[in-house]
Specification:
N-terminal domain of TfIIb; binds zinc ion; mainly beta; single chain; 5-stranded antiparallel β-sheet
């Protein structure tokens, strides 16, 4: 099997933005698809087992399971 991240590498990887821990997200094939930082709300892509630890390459995490929203059309920044 190729395309898996070296576990030793995973242990030392941190979010380049906040230096926080990363959560491995697995793809449908069981290989690592991305490394997620919930603190920053960013998902760092993994390409062929190589984590791309670049903030500019990271994708925003989809909002997950926050049920606090009540149909407001807001989005306006608060002062
Ligand atoms: Zn982070």
């Amino acid at each position: 099997m190729s395309g898996r991240i070296d576990p030793e590498l995973l242990r030392i990887l941190v979010c380049p933005k906040c230096k926080g821990e990363l959560e491995v997200r697995l793809g449908e094939d069981g290989a690592e698809a991305s490394l997620d930082c919930s603190a920053c709300g960013l998902a760092y892509p993994v390409e062929d087992g190589i984590p791309v630890m670049l903030i500019e390459e990271a994708k925003p995490l989809p909002p997950s399971g926050s049920s606090g929203e009540k149909g407001s059309s807001g989005g306006a920044p608060r002062a």
